[in-house]
Amino acid sequence: MLTATYILVSLSVEQASIRMSLLAFQKYMQMQLRQQSRLSLAQLQYTGDWLNRLYQGGYWRKVEMYLIPAIRQATPHADGLLNELNGLNHAALESINVVQQRAGAALDSSEQQAEQLCAAIDTFCAALLQRLEKEERELFALARKVIVGEAWFAIAYQFLAHDARAQEARRGKAQVLPFVLPVPLPAPGTPADAADTTGSAGTAATDALPGVPQPLRAQA
Questions:
Q1: β-bridge partners, 122
Q2: How far apart, in whole angstroms, are the C-alpha atoms of residue 154 and residue 3?
Q3: Whether 1 contacts 149, CB under 8 Å
Q4: How much is the pLDDT for 33?
Q5: Of 57, 132, 136, 55, nearest to 90 (Cα)?
Q6: How many helices (H) and strands (E) are present in the chain, helices listed first?
Q7: Which is the most buried residue in 41, 128, 174, 206, by most CB within 10 A?
Q8: Around 157, how many Cα atoms within 13 Å sit in the side-chain half-sphere?
């Protein structure tokens, strides 16, 4: 069915984007950690925050929000695979806990700090990358078998609504330039002194208005 193909291709694109984010983060942290033998508290907190962001972002994927609930509703026999996927999530979460525990404890001068942190990041990324692969290879195949016609149309509608909300959110974060009142021009034949006075009056009128909000900064 074309609708099912559209949905699964859309999910594959989402998977590819997440995979690139994980690999880019892993590569960046490895390059940084190779140059250090002792880590600061700020570095540990930074790493823990980023790992947590990547982990929490997984719950807002379309796979989690729409496809998995549809599979649960379509068949009672998907628990084994879904439990395996949850197990990979727990493995990634344990890596975050390791980093956060080290950030909350007193830092020592061990040269193994960077190596341990790098190992935790590798474990985190490996678990989530394995989950992505298992979803594409097994979960998508299961979805094709158990989800029937009208359910695919319902998922497609959810996807369209999801994309519309995301686009609206991006618009809300777009940069907004402040409105600035123009300085009034002097009337023809007005002496220079009068023009200065008029300009001052215009400035005073502008100052009397409520403050113009600062422009919103665009956010990624």
A1: none
A2: 10
A3: yes
A4: 81
A5: 55
A6: 9, 0
A7: 128
A8: 7
| Distance between CA atoms of residues 37 and 24, nearest Å | 22
**At which residue do the structure tokens 């699964």 appear?**
8
Residue with tokens 């149309």: 153
Ramachandran sector of residue 189 (left: φ over 0; alpha: ψ -120 to 50; beta: rest): left
Residue 94 Ramachandran class (φ > 0 left, ψ -120 to 50 alpha, else beta): alpha
Q: Residue 146 and residue 37: Cα distance in Å, rounded? A: 52
* Two structure tokens written together for 161: 């609504």
* One-letter amino acid of 119: A
Please say whether the beta carbons of 78 and 72 come within 8 A: yes
How does pLDDT run along the chain (220 residues), one tens digit per residue?
789 999 999 999 999 999 999 999 999 888 888 777 677 778 788 888 889 899 998 888 999 999 999 999 999 999 999 999 999 999 999 998 888 777 666 555 455 677 888 889 999 999 999 999 999 999 999 999 999 989 999 999 999 999 898 888 888 765 554 544 445 545 545 554 544 444 444 444 444 334 433 433 333 3
Contact (CB, 8 A) for 189 and 195? no
Q: Which residues of 123-156 are buried (b: 16+ CB within 10 A; e: fewer)?
A: ebbbbbbebbeebbeebbebbeebbeeebbeebb
Buried b / exposed e across 24-44, counting CB within 10 Å, b at 16+? Answer: ebbeebeebbeeeeebeeebb
- First-to-final CA distance of the chain: 35
